[in-house]
Design a protein that fits this description.
alpha+beta; Uridine Diphospho-n-acetylenolpyruvylglucosamine Reductase, domain 3; Uridine Diphospho-n-acetylenolpyruvylglucosamine Reductase, domain 1; 3 domains; five-stranded antiparallel beta sheet; four-stranded antiparallel beta sheet; 9 helices; 29% helix; 26% strand; globular
Length: 312
């Protein structure tokens, strides 16, 4: 069952599931998958994954290499390493630039894929180059070639490209101070997103204030704007999202951008609730919220119909 590979704890089985921590076997499996008549998908930690209740009709591949090593101001890390393990490794070596990412769940590959960040900083700030497979061969991109933007990268647009590892460059700093910062952030994050909670953190991306339509921008209180962004939770809260539920899928009473599985939640309920929240914000503000989560095992028409408020 793929449910065991997602933070939501939701999802049916794959027809074929294969995992390896080595590049060569992964590339061989990828070649077999690509040459077969079956659909295939590549997943990481599953921190931001919604898998269909019916699972995935095809092959699911997972690269789990998790080695981390340091050399001077450089850190080499494989995509399957836990992001928190990388944060701890960097802090332990007195390297600055990852401490604000403390507590963000998932693997390094996913963090680069979605340009994960918090408190005004993103992982792209320390990425020198990324090693990946494009389906035909293994390539390396320099930072600029990765086309990083807010919660975006070229890898997110080219989903057939699979990240293997990254070369990071971090400045020297006092390890004790870095640890203090990380522990404070981790305490706040664990209070907001308890580690045992079946959730993907924030469901929707925050919005860049400068890109909001003028009428909407004038409605946003100045104290809500943080580092040039307006939290999606602000618009969701105004649209009455807190506490809304479908089955065991619920929006937290204390955070309008936090959806969690309270027990026996279903993917269908989750997808429908996301669609309802998007519709509420669209109707109230004329804005289209964008999910941070990815979908596996759904027909494109299923997700589109939910987004338009219909049923699948």
């Amino acid at each position: 069952m793929l449910a065991g590979h997602t933070r939501f704890g939701i999802g049916g089985p794959a027809d074929v599931y294969a995992q390896t921590a080595r590049e060569e076997p992964f590339l061989e499996a990828l070649g077999v998958a690509r040459s077969s008549s079956l659909d295939y998908a590549v997943i990481g930690s599953g921190a931001n994954l919604i898998v269909s209740d019916q699972g995935f009709r095809g092959i699911v591949l997972r690269f789990s290499g998790d080695r981390i090593s340091g050399e001077g101001e450089r850190i080499l890390v494989e995509a399957g390493a836990e992001l928190q393990s990388l944060v701890d490794f960097a802090i332990g070596r007195g390297r600055k630039g990852l401490e604000t990412l403390a507590g963000i769940p998932g693997w390094v590959g996913g963090a680069i894929y979605g340009n994960a960040g918090a408190y005004g900083h993103s992982i792209s700030e320390v990425v020198r180059r990324v090693r990946f497979a494009d389906g035909e061969r293994v390539r390396t991109f320099e930072n600029q070639e990765c086309e990083f933007h807010y919660r975006e990268s070229i890898f997110k647009r080219r989903k057939e490209w699979i990240i293997f590892s990254a070369d990071l460059a971090l400045e020297t700093a006092d390890a004790g101070e870095l640890r203090r910062i990380a522990e404070e952030i981790l305490a706040v994050r664990n209070q907001k997103y308890p580690p045992a909670m079946k959730c993907a953190g924030s469901i929707f991306k925050n919005l860049l204030f400068e890109e909001l339509p003028a009428p909407v921008a004038r409605m946003v209180p100045e104290e809500v704007i943080r580092e040039g962004k307006v939290p999606a939770a602000y618009f969701l809260e105004q649209a009455g999202a807190k506490g809304v539920s479908r089955g065991d899928i619920r929006v937290a009473e204390y955070h309008a951008n936090l959806i969690y599985n309270a027990g026996a939640g279903r993917a269908q309920d989750l997808v429908e609730l996301i669609a309802e929240l998007k519709a509420r914000v669209r109707e109230r503000f004329g804005l289209e919220l964008e999910e941070e989560v990815q979908y596996v095992g759904f027909e494109k028409s299923e997700v589109r119909s939910q987004e338009s408020g219909g049923s699948s």
